[in-house]
Amino acid sequence: MSDSTDVAVSGAPCWVSLMSRDLRAAQDFYGAVLGWSFRPGAHEEGFSVALADGDPVAGIGAFAHTFRVAVSWTPYFAVDSADETAARIRERSATVAVGPLAFGRGRAALAADPDGAVFGIWEGHRAKWGVGRGSAPAWLELRTRDTFAASIFYAEVLRWATECEDGCDVVYKSDQVVLREGTREVAVINGGAVESAPDPHVRPRWHVYFRVPDVDAAAAAAVAAGGSVPRHPAPSPLGREATLRDPDGGLFTIVS
Questions:
Q1: How far apart are alpha carbons 106 and 133 in whole angstroms?
Q2: Does the predicted TM-score (pTM) go above 0.85?
């Protein structure tokens, strides 16, 4: 499989969405900080698609109250069968909180892994969108207590590292489990050394990294728009980066 693939392969991240409380307020904040514009979702009220230079970047929906979840960015992974994947999630002592339900041109479900990190699955049309490509997020990171247990769970549920050519591979790199779609590294599972004891102080969650042309300017814009900067701009292996919090508490990282 090469990097010329237009759509996400099975098991790969295929979208990210913000579970917000107030759609208009979220649009105002992310428009000011990340320069996004928005168009209404084609099939659901209370949902919009964020655009960067006309290309889809992410979804924002006013669903936090409906689903009684914290405001957060959630990655969705492409699957061939939402029902079969949901069954595998439940079989491994994890939770399917919502769905699978019909949504637009496919079916989706919202789940939580055994440690409580929220993620989604998607069966259906896969847009020309991919982590690390164009305007899409640069990187996804699962911050978890036990790298080994988490990697086993997601590999079994999403069929990573199988014999199927149309799928994702995993590699171990610097005490992290890295997910690869073709030759591109699209996500990492990070919880300390693979064989180390689980860290009880880590709150498991998926974390999204977005590209910006100027990290310092975006951080300043976040404060001006009512957000905060839990981790101020500093150099990192990915480039200059900072972690921001939107006014409702949603965390994300920006990187140059």
A1: 23
A2: yes
